[in-house]
Design a protein that fits this description.
71% helix, two-stranded antiparallel sheet, 85 residues
Amino acid sequence: MRAALVIVGFLGALMLSPWVPALCVLFLALRYRAWEAIVLGLLVDLTWQPFPAVAGGYVHIIPIFTISSIFIVWVFEPLRSQFLR
């Protein structure tokens, strides 16, 4: 099940909407100690965010999916450890 969620998340990050890997991150964080969730968030950010070059200036883009996947894994850690003993 874990490998299937990771594969669907990686394929979703490359070919589908960014919400597919977001759901995979959520399901992985609920069930497993998921370092893959953070990698999925990073892959979505690198795939779907635009390049930061704008006519001679720099645009700072916040990696929303990476930060949210770190937050989700961190928040669901005590819940998962309490409910899935």
